[in-house]
Design goal:
The chain is mostly helical and 72 residues long. 62% of the residues lie in helices and 0% in strands.
């Protein structure tokens, strides 16, 4: 079973390794830097629309972020 904690961890790792600042990511998504910080810390999860856009901005596969590649 996939947990919100696993998804939060994947988002945090993606942000960390993107090479982009939280401010740059926030600007690209049209959200506040504070919201990106919440995602990074695992305090909140993005909406489906924001998650899709986050994947596009960071050039990520949503299946990886949603831990779907490990589900069999």
């Amino acid at each position: 079973m996939i947990t919100a904690q696993e998804i939060s961890k994947k988002i945090s790792e993606a942000i960390k390794f993107s090479g982009k600042t939280q401010t740059e990511i926030a600007k690209s998504l049209g959200v506040s830097q504070q919201m990106i910080s919440y995602y990074f810390k695992g305090e909140k999860l993005p909406t489906a629309e924001t998650l899709a856009n986050l994947c596009a901005v960071l050039d990520l596969d949503a299946n990886d972020i949603l831990c779907l590649n490990k589900v069999k």
